[in-house]
Automatic annotation (TrEMBL):
Endpoints of the signal sequence: 1-19
Superkingdom assignment: Bacteria
Protein name in the entry: Secreted protein
Keywords for this protein: Signal
Length: 140
């Protein structure tokens, strides 16, 4: 995977160097910039003197390679105030036993248990449907 990314970057830099040298010879900027999405082992089309070709792989929609992406949760100090407030509100609701919280504390805490079960069931169905779509030979 890393070799593919390095290869694509090397091809892009080599193509960029050729296009840059051709541009330097003519003194004119490229007339066209073309974005190409390639699949599998397709090669990226060559750039010409009046065109720059930028390639991306269909199976790799992100510019940052998967091994270098940061998948850890975002720290609280780096989140927006909306997220912080929502978290504090939910924590306060559960701790206070307010309605729809499924808490053993408070008068309305029990009313949220059915809601939470329904939400968990719906999330499980969405996950199963997503898994069926991604499995080769699964329903499309």
């Amino acid at each position: 995977m890393l070799r593919v990314v390095v290869g694509v970057v090397a091809m892009m830099s080599a193509a960029g160097a050729v296009a840059q040298s051709q541009q330097a010879e003519t003194g004119q900027p490229p007339q066209r910039i073309r974005n190409v999405t390639v699949t599998g082992q397709q090669a990226c089309p060559q750039s010409t003197s009046d065109e720059v070709v930028v390639c991306s792989r269909l199976d790799e929609p992100y510019r940052i390679p998967k091994g270098l992406r940061d998948d850890r949760p975002i720290a609280a100090q780096n989140q927006s105030w909306v997220n912080r407030t929502a978290t504090m509100d939910q924590t306060g609701r559960v701790a206070g036993g307010l309605p729809d919280t499924c808490s053993p504390v408070g008068t309305g805490g029990q009313s949220g248990c059915a809601l939470q079960r329904n939400q968990a069931f719906a999330a499980e169905r969405r996950a199963n449907a997503q898994a069926a779509r991604t499995v080769p030979g699964g329903e499309q």
